Amino acid sequence: MPPAAAAEGAGPAPNPQALATVTAGSTEPHLMFRVELHKTKRGSLGIDVTYSPTASWTRNGVFVTGVFEDGLVAKWNAERQEPRCVCSGDFIFQVNGVHSDTASMIQEMKVKQ
Questions:
Q1: CA 107 to CA 72: how far, in whole Å?
Q2: What's the predicted TM-score (pTM) here?
Q3: Cα Rg for the chain, rounded, in angstroms?
């Protein structure tokens, strides 16, 4: 399973149930880090995401498939060092307080400011 990104700082901590769901059955070590972004009306996260309904744990989040140079995530990455940068292949399992519902998570990424 790829590294996971959630929400950092003053935002909500990862929900224990969401965390347990996405790590269930895995024996691999996971790198998890929280990302705090303050989206404005004109700002874009600058990422593409996708999800896969094929495995139960992937139904509870989205995979990052691309990070654009001009988005908030790229700005976050420029201020951080690997491995705490958001990259293609990372798995997002919680957005703000929303977890375990992929459609709601995607909507949360689109509308929150």
A1: 17
A2: 0.77
A3: 13
Q: Measure the CA–CA gap between 111 and 113, rounded to whole angstroms.
A: 6
Cα–Cα distance for residue pair 20/33, rounded to 1 Å: 15
Tokens describing residue 8: 């950092």
State pLDDT tens for residues 61-97: 899 999 999 999 999 999 999 999 999 999 998 998 8
- For 1-10, the pLDDT digits (tens) are 444 444 444 4
Which two structure tokens, joined as six digits, stand for 54? 């094929």
Q: How far apart are CA 37 and CA 28, in angstroms?
A: 28
DSSP 67-85: E-TTSHHHHHHHTS-TTSS
Can the peptide bond before residue 53 be classed as cis, meaning omega within 30 degrees of 0?
Answer: no
Q: How far apart are CA 64 and CA 88, in angstroms?
A: 5
**Residue found by looking up tokens 């976050």 in the block:** 76
Q: What tokens were used for 55?
A: 């495995």
